[in-house]
Design a protein that fits this description.
- It contains three helices and no strands.
- It is mainly alpha-helical.
- The protein folds into two domains: about 60 residues; about 40 residues.
- It starts with a helix and ends with a helix.
Length: about 100
């Protein structure tokens, strides 16, 4: 049994695999700078968006003032009988056809 043709075929196959691997590595090496630039830009965009979301979700002093004012208005309406009577009358008039 002569194994020389099989060995030659195997060697040729490995040469093709080696050449394709080398070409792939060259392509990766050429693409790496652009890939890094893209990822750095994505990082900047994400960190900018995170900063915007962070600033939008933090309560500010005027949010607290508005909340206190609305709570005060609701408490005033609930505790003042004249206001309750006025609101009840307005609701009764508005519900008639």
């Amino acid at each position: 049994m002569d194994l020389r043709p099989q060995l030659l075929g195997l060697t040729a196959g490995w040469k093709v695999v080696g050449g394709e691997t080398a070409q792939t590595m060259r392509d990766i090496q050429r693409a790496t700078p652009q890939l890094l630039t893209t990822w750095q830009q994505i990082e900047k965009d994400v960190s900018g968006s995170a900063a915007n979301i962070n600033s939008l979700t933090k309560p500010r002093w005027y949010d607290r003032v508005l909340g206190y004012a609305l709570n005060g208005a609701v408490l005033y309406r609930n505790l003042n009988p004249v206001t309750n009577l006025t609101v009840t009358g307005a609701q009764a008039i508005a519900s008639r056809p």
